[in-house]
Amino acid sequence: MTQTDPLVEIRGLNKYFGSNHVLRDIDFSVARGEVVCVIGPSGSGKSTLLRCVNLLETPQSGTVKVNEQELTDPDCDIDAARRQIGMVFQQFNLFPHHSALDNCTLALTTVLKKKRDEAERIARENLERVGLAEKVDAYPARLSGGQQQRVAIARALSMDPALMLFDEPTSALDPELVGEVLTVMRRLADEGMTMIVVTHEIAFAREVADRVVFMDGGGIVEQGKPSTLLSEPREPRTRDFLKRVL
Ligand code: ADP
Ligand code: MG
Questions:
Q1: Ligand 2 centroid to 137 CA: how many Å?
Q2: In whole angstroms, what is the distance from residue 69 CA to residue 86 CA?
Q3: Looking at this predicted complex, what is its ipTM?
Q4: Distance from C-alpha of 184 to C-alpha of 130, rounded to nearest angstrom
């Protein structure tokens, strides 16, 4: 393994739900430290592609490799492989009856078998990283949506992932809370985290992404630098989409 190998390498990926062919022969790689934003209309397959990266969805064909481990290999230890992939969803999916701190320590103590004080140290560090040092003891119901989403990010970071996946992390938030979450994500990107972000926040993609991928109809229609793809798209479908969202 060399540091220049892609962190994520997907080849010939096909996914069907029944007769619905939702991912069509996708080839998709992400370099270490790269930030990729995935945009596209509803139903184009963005979430399914993201969920195939950690095999939350099983593709019918193709290979998914993350950090030199082939998740689609039947012999792959899928739980171990998934541990290096953090995922943040539109709905924060926090454990409602656990404090912010315990939301972050839970997997550390149960899955990684860390000692309680070590788990707490890691959890506090990551809650601080997302600007929530003051809220360690708060329960999700007492936190704003933006704060809950930041806890979800801290929880994912606590596992020390090699890759972070975000599926529309700000879509469920009131507009005034979107900024605080994007700020945390921007900081993560600056720190060199490898990230795949499905988002409708075109301004964020323009500013933070190294590459923007436009999906439509289960395929990657066009991809490139944000300055190029978002300002001078080649494909009519990309142009139409951008006209509608910008
Ligand atoms: P996007 O995230 O771009 O909106 P999705 O990946 O969620 O798109 O969906 C792509 C297609 O797959 C859609 O036609 C959707 O209805 C279908 N689909 C997604 N998840 C499921 C599922 N669990 N079962 C059946 N069909 C699904
Ligand atoms: Mg989606």
A1: 32
A2: 16
A3: 0.99
A4: 6
Helix (H, G, I), strand (E, B) or coil at 188: helix
Distance CA 102, CA 4 (A): 36
3-state SS assignment for residue 11: strand
The one-letter code for the residue type at 123 is A
User: pLDDT per residue over 82-135, tens digit each?
Assistant: 999 999 999 999 999 999 999 999 999 999 999 999 999 999 999 999 999 999
pLDDT (tens digit, 9 = 90+) per residue, 161-181? 999 999 999 999 999 999 999
What is the 79 CA–ligand 1 centroid distance (Å)?
24
Q: What is the atom index within ligand 1 of the atom nearest the CA of 50?
A: 6
* Of residues 16, 19, 30, 1, the one with CA closest to residue 189: 30
Q: Residue 124's pLDDT is what? A: 98
Rounded to the nearest 10 degrees, what angle do helices 145-158 and 175-190 cross at?
A: 20
